[in-house]
């Protein structure tokens, strides 16, 4: 009977750990969105050069689309392009939360942009 109790406690502990780990996962995937923005800039022939950065502020609607977006970029063309492309953009995943304003900064490297932490 003692071994059965230990087995049962171990099983409950394992299951609760897995459930807790699932709940504490990231609320959103900024790296995925960062890659999408990088591709938008590359496709538009406006690469983000080393030393420059782009900061995007946005909020999410109920249907997981970007409903508000403001971009701080090195030039007005890049800012306008990102605002137009990202507005009403459907986001992947179901862990985005509406009512939160997200901030994403992308730093330029020689020819590749990356997520700034």
Automatic annotation (TrEMBL):
Top-rank taxon: Bacteria
Q: What is this protein called?
A: Uncharacterized protein
- Provenance organism: Salinimicrobium sediminis
